[in-house]
Specification:
The chain has helices at 6-17, 35-48, 75-86, 88-100, 109-116. By secondary structure, it is an all-alpha fold.
Length: 117
């Protein structure tokens, strides 16, 4: 709906433009709070503005039947794969990291972030 969630959308727009902020924006909230609507709006903004590059996204659901959508350890490898599809340099660096430690995909999220992103 037009005019809703204006503040959080502005925060995301500001985050996109400020390269001093963390590279990951974590959008979380209660079921029904509008996360999907916000993510869809941001994706639309990114596709309409060539200055915005959306690296990737991941959907988590406690009620999803797929284990991958319930296991937090799948988030970082999925995002890394999406980034590798957008950047050949990133893809080569990711392949090197996975060659060094293929088990990183099953380690703690903190270690995955440090290694894969």
């Amino acid at each position: 709906m037009v005019g809703t969630r204006v503040q959080v959308l502005q925060e995301i727009k500001d985050w996109i433009k400020d390269f001093d902020l963390p590279s990951i924006f974590w959008l979380a909230g209660m079921a029904g709070s509008g996360k999907t609507t916000i993510a869809t709006t941001v994706s639309s903004l990114a596709s309409d503005d060539p200055a915005i590059i959306l690296g990737g996204s991941f959907f988590c659901s406690r009620s999803a039947g797929l284990q991958a959508q319930r296991d937090v350890r799948c988030i970082i490898p999925t995002l890394a794969r999406l980034l590798a599809r957008q950047s050949i340099e990133f893809g080569y660096a990711l392949a090197d990291e996975l060659t060094r430690d293929p088990e990183v995909l099953h380690k703690q999220v903190r270690i995955q972030v440090e290694t894969l992103l």
